[in-house]
Design a protein that fits this description.
By secondary structure, this protein is α+β, with helices and mostly antiparallel strands. It has a single domain, classed as Hypothetical protein af1432, CATH 1.10.3210. The protein is 54% helix and 11% strand. It contains nine helices and four strands, in the order ααααααααββαββ. It has a four-stranded mixed sheet with strand order 1-2-3-4.
Length: 219
């Protein structure tokens, strides 16, 4: 059986994650290495576990989360589709069932806001986990004077929490933002597409998506 722990220990997958992140670093992008993919994998699984999904579905979400960004190895453009194809080959050669491969590949292929849509619970959980990972530690540029808007927005986020309501009818992205680096308007300028995708993902899971920044509910 192909498990999340086996995927995490797969040398080839870890090589692809490392090289994909190096490519993004060369392009000036935020961190997409093991800190990001492990966080996404854990959170995607936790979302479904909290909502009462079975352990196997939770495991598939974690696997999808861990390998969702390997397509950046090929190119940033259409990385979700190239990553899905890479994942298909890896998982197929590993002996995973076609049913499980189909779910994971579909989730990876639909995680980017440019072309993706939440098609099932695993893809929805992956989208919410991925798009909510906004934090200062992802910024690699050490010269604040040269920050672009993406650097400013990510650097301004001191704390990010994704919270499912007690009634499991809502999911809240709560951000603590330092306004000296970025304004709320800056956040929406670059993340409006992501927040729209999060809303659709939450709806796919039977919830309403909410956004709170510095105690003020915006969505």
């Amino acid at each position: 059986m192909i498990t999340y722990e086996k995927i995490r220990k797969n040398a080839a997958i870890n090589t692809y994650i490392t090289q994909a992140d190096r490519s993004l670093q060369a392009l000036g992008y935020t961190e997409h290495s093991f800190a990001h993919v492990t966080r996404v994998a854990t959170l995607a699984g936790d979302i479904l576990q909290t909502l009462g999904y079975d352990a196997h579905t939770v495991e598939l979400a974690r696997i999808a989360g861990y390998i969702h960004d390997i397509g950046n190895l090929v190119n940033r453009v259409a990385h979700s589709q190239s990553g899905a194809l890479m994942a298909f080959r890896i998982l197929d050669h590993s002996g995973m069932s076609p049913e499980d491969i189909a779910i994971i590949v579909s989730a990876i292929g639909n995680h980017d806001e440019g072309t993706g849509v939440p098609v099932d619970e695993v893809s929805a959980a992956l989208i919410l986990a991925d798009k909510s990972d906004v934090r200062r530690s992802r910024v690699r540029n050490t010269d604040i004077s040269t920050f672009d808007i993406h650097d400013r927005v990510n650097y301004s986020v001191e704390k990010s929490e994704l919270i499912i309501g007690d009634d499991k009818k809502s999911i809240l992205l709560r951000l603590t933002v330092d306004p000296q680096y970025s304004s709320i308007m800056d956040y929406f300028e670059i993340f409006l597409g992501r927040m729209t995708m999060c809303r659709r993902a939450a709806e796919c899971l039977g919830m309403r998506f909410k956004l709170e920044i510095n105690g003020q509910q915006l969505l």
